[in-house]
Design goal:
The strands form three sheets. The protein has a five-stranded antiparallel beta sheet, covered by helices on one side. The chain is built from three helices and eleven strands. The two termini are about 35 Å apart. The protein has about 200 residues and is an alpha+beta fold. The chain folds into two domains: about 90 residues, FAD/NAD(P)-binding domain, CATH 3.50.50.60; about 90 residues, D-Amino Acid Oxidase, subunit A, domain 2 (D-Amino Acid Oxidase, Chain A, domain 2, 2-Layer Sandwich), CATH 3.30.9.
């Protein structure tokens, strides 16, 4: 916000107001929002939204499960993120909490879950970090990863002169966020990106 960014929390995007070869405004529940450039960066919903405007974007929702657990004994928790490669479970330290995630399910846009879905995650946590936490205090969550068929995000201009994409990052959205943002900023500003754009730009 100090840099002039305005956040519209609790606001629903309803569609785009198209005029000729450009997007005139984003229509929202708070009214139209205008700007020089519009970016579709809507996670797993990006594909559905793009198809409304003739943009073929094969982003698929892939469900993953996450358990976030307060550490009872912080000295027994991990000091850095890692993964159990045998059980394909990732973990990271969030202050005095441990977050563990796993699984890739093709269930459409269903975000529902049941406690049994987290059994392997919690058992792995107890094996890796004995007596570090009480699993009964785990906060359970299931969400959708925006996956592309080739696991490569798609970034760049799409169909309309001032419409851009930045989506399809799968399970590494936070990891790639800053780099993707810089790459897209260069594209929007007409600068040469610092990395080879082949395979990232929409339509290449």
């Amino acid at each position: 916000e100090k840099l002039g960014v305005k956040f519209l929390f609790g606001t629903t995007i309803q569609g785009l107001d198209i005029e000729g070869d450009r997007v005139r405004a984003v229509m929202t529940s708070a009214g139209p929002v205008t700007g020089d450039a519009v970016v579709i960066s809507m996670g797993p919903e990006s594909g559905l939204f793009g198809r409304r405007y003739g943009i073929d974007l094969p982003v698929y929702p892939v469900k993953g499960y996450t358990a976030t657990i307060p550490l009872e004994d912080e000295s027994k928790g991990p000091t850095m993120g890692g993964a159990d490669e045998d059980r394909l479970i990732g973990y990271s330290r969030l202050g005095n909490r441990l977050r563990m995630s796993s699984t890739a399910e093709f269930t459409g846009f269903d975000r529902s879950f049941k406690p049994g879905d987290f059994r392997t995650i919690l058992e792995t946590g107890k094996d890796l970090f004995p007596r570090a936490f009480d699993e009964k205090k785990a906060v359970l969550w299931a969400g959708l990863r925006p996956m592309m068929p080739n696991s490569v995000p798609v970034i760049g201009q799409a169909k309309y002169r001032n419409l851009y994409l930045d989506t399809g990052h799968g399970h590494v959205g936070w990891t790639m966020a800053c780099g993707s943002g810089q790459f897209l900023a260069d594209v929007v500003a007409g600068r040469k990106p610092q990395i080879d754009p082949l395979g990232l730009l929409y339509g290449t």
